[in-house]
Each structure stands twice: as structure tokens, then as C-alpha cells.
Amino acid sequence: MARTGAETRELLVDTALRLFREQGFDGTTMRGIATEAGVSLGNAYHYFAGKDELVQELYRVVQVEHRDRTLPRLDPGAPLAENLRTTLHTGLDVMAPYHAFGQAFVRVALPSSSPASPFSPESAGPRDLAVDLMRTVVESSSTRVPARLRERLPHLLWLAYLGVTLHWVTDGSPDQRRTRRLVDGLAPVVGRALSLSRLPVARGLVDDVLTLATGLDGADRPTKEHA
Amino acid sequence: MARTGAETRELLVDTALRLFREQGFDGTTMRGIATEAGVSLGNAYHYFAGKDELVQELYRVVQVEHRDRTLPRLDPGAPLAENLRTTLHTGLDVMAPYHAFGQAFVRVALPSSSPASPFSPESAGPRDLAVDLMRTVVESSSTRVPARLRERLPHLLWLAYLGVTLHWVTDGSPDQRRTRRLVDGLAPVVGRALSLSRLPVARGLVDDVLTLATGLDGADRPTKEHA
DNA sequence: CGGTGCAGTTGAACACGTTCAACTGAGAGG
DNA sequence: CCTCTCAGTTGAACGTGTTCAACTGCACCG
CA neighbours within 13 Å on the CB side: how many for B193? Predict the structure, then answer.
């Protein structure tokens, strides 16, 4: 044999993602992936530090496909709520084959220390991809966004998307219909909230929420360490 | 030997919770728990279907202690934001010893199918405990709550508490300071949002949010099954 | 006394994720 | 032709969560 390393690696990723789709995360064993790919167990671990690392591969794949399938569906000039709805539904479409796998995805990605966390530096690429997608959604919509919000809104929408994903993961209803309904309800709420945010009376709340959201992600603010 | 079952069970719970505190979730093995408790491995599994089931025990313990430590600290007549802040901080105090364990807690509780999920029927007891605590917080505060919200607000605050818990679990900052800051920011935001919700212009948004929140938890709405 | 049921208990066994020291074999250098 | 190197690979081994058929010993019944 003696393939090149990149070939073996790709072979393993493809096999793993297929098995994840077919059997879920827990149902897929490292031995199964190795056997199915025709390599030894130890060799699989040569390319992936562990089962978790294969999750990051999925994260990447899903983000890219989400963007590629969403962009042509956006309706320029439509209200933000409508385009957001399209975007979120498309995201669910992309993830659907992996729902059996989703629980494990979150349990791997959740710890902020984990490189698979959407907040981690290692995930910067996929994260920027997702935030940029939301920026496109905002900019290609007709809805007017207050100046204070404009810069931050894509990031907020990405956080909302994470929330939807979290709900989707825990959604045991058939075809995850509850999450679909959540999206249908959430999009107009965002639209209404945006309208409301233009009123002077809401200014204080908007500012506070922005501050809150800033604290949500990223590591601790650099606290002037002296070493 | 031949203890009564309840005794052995309690012995196992105490031992497990202690080891979880000392060594975290992954660091604690079922063999370790069994050995430390002086019972056989198989016997531990006679009382708990698996490691996960011990998590529910912790969930229960934490909820009860949260309530017991919060009630005497509430300031009747103070603004809701202040009492909410106290409540959330007290919750963090109670959970603090288990932070190393927290990641595992979520990964066990997340799947809605899991009995350990805060939305599951099996968790109804602890959940009601937590929602009732929030109800007490609302009722013992001076802040006026719009009629449409009054009944649902405790439930919404409980959801917010879940969100804070989720953030806490993923919080890698020293002593989980970021979550403390989140609470300090969140409480006033809730207060402001509540004020805003009294304006007629916000009525539509409030109703939509309430509808959204209704869909968040619980199983699928009973869809008139004919069997 | 002998048996019978049964709550409580046991330890071996299985499959899994992960680690690691050793092997393979094709090319480079002499 | 021999040897060295090293990326690619291997399979045994460890500790884990979990399962299960069998054991123990006490209380009760005849």
C-alpha cells in the first residue's frame, strides 16, 4: 500500500462522516471507521487524535455547505426576517442528515476549552464563515438597521443560530419539526425587535444587550497580565 | 453485610458526589465509586442504570440547595432585577464545587430524550422546584409585571437560568468570573425589558416571544393521536 | 428441620476509546 | 549491493462503561 498521508486522511474523514450519518456518533466505533476504510485502528489514531477531532471536520463541512446553499436562496430586498428564516431553515436542511450525530456534536463542542467549540481560536475559520453569512443576510435585506446595531447584528444573529442549533440537537420531535416552528417564530420576533430598537425608549436596553452579547463569547478579556 | 437497598443507594450517591467534586466526571470511574463505597462494581449498576443516572441525583441536590439558600436572601420589596441577580448568583455559588463536573452534566442532560434533561418528565420535580423559586422571586419583588406576562414570567426566568447555567458550564475563566459578569448584566436587562414590555408598542413582540417560549420546552404538542 | 423465595450482591466478560513500541518498505546515499 | 531514514502502518495492551448469569444469606412457610 503506502498511500500518501493526505489520501489516507481523506479516506478516513469520508468514511467517518458516512458512518456518522448512518449510525450516529455512539453507534460509530473507531474500529468500525478503521475497518471500513481498510486501515488499522492505530493508523486512524495517527491522523486524528481522537473521535472528537473528527467532529471538527464535520463542523467545517457543514458551515461551508450552509453558506453555499443559502446564498443563492437569499432574496435581495426582502425583509430581514424573511431572509433570516430562509437562512436558518437551510442550515437545518444541511444538518438534517447528522441529527443522530448532533447530540455528540454539542457534547464535544460545548467545553470552551475544547478546540471544537465554536468560540475557540481553532474554529475561527468556520465561525467567520458563519458570521459573514449573517452579514450578507443583513446587507441583502431591505430592513433598516439602527446604526448602533449594524456592525454587531451579524454576530448577534450568529449567536441566535447557535441557539437554534442547540435546540435542534435536543429536538426529539419527528423531523425536528419543533425546531422548524422555532425558526418560523424566531425570525419575525427578530424583525419586530429590530423595529422596536429604533425607538429612543429602547436605547438603554439595546446598549445593555449589546454589552451582554460582547461578554458571551471569546476568552476572558485580557486582564493586563504582568508576565 | 446485607444492608437495606436504600442504605446502599444513599452510600453510592454520597460517594459519587464526593468523587465528582474531587475528580470531576471523567476522572471518576464507576469502579472508583464502587470501591470507595465498599461495594462491588456490579452492585453499583444494580442501583444506577449507568453513570448518567448519578447525574440526576446531582441535579436534584443542587436544585434543593439552590432554593434553600436563595429564599432567606431575597429582599421583599426590592426591584425584580436585584432579587433575580441574588438568585442567579446563589445558584452559581451552589454549583461552584461541581464546575469540573459541569461539562459532563450538560452532555448528559442535553438530549431531550434523556431522563436527565431538565425538560423531561422525570425531572418534573426539580424543574417545578426551580420554576417555583422564580415565581417567589417575582412575587416578592416590587417590580410591576404586566398581566399578560405575570403567569409566564417565572417560566421565562427559569429558561434564562438554564441559559446562564449553560454559559457557566462552558466558562473557562478563573472562578467563572465571566458568568458572574453575565449575571450582573442580565439582571438589569430583564428589568429594562420588563419596563419596556408595559408599552403598548411592545405588545406584539411580547406576545410573539411568549409563543416562542411555549414551543421551547415540553415534548411535541399532543397531535390528536387516534390510538 | 428442610426448603423456597427473594432482595442484595458478586466477579467475569464484552466492546469500546486510546496509547505505544515495533514493523514495513520505498527511496537516498555510499 | 548494502545501509540508513523515515513516513506510513500495525496489533497488542490498558482502563473504561456496561451487562449478566450466578451466588449469598436471611426470612418465612410446611
Answer: 19
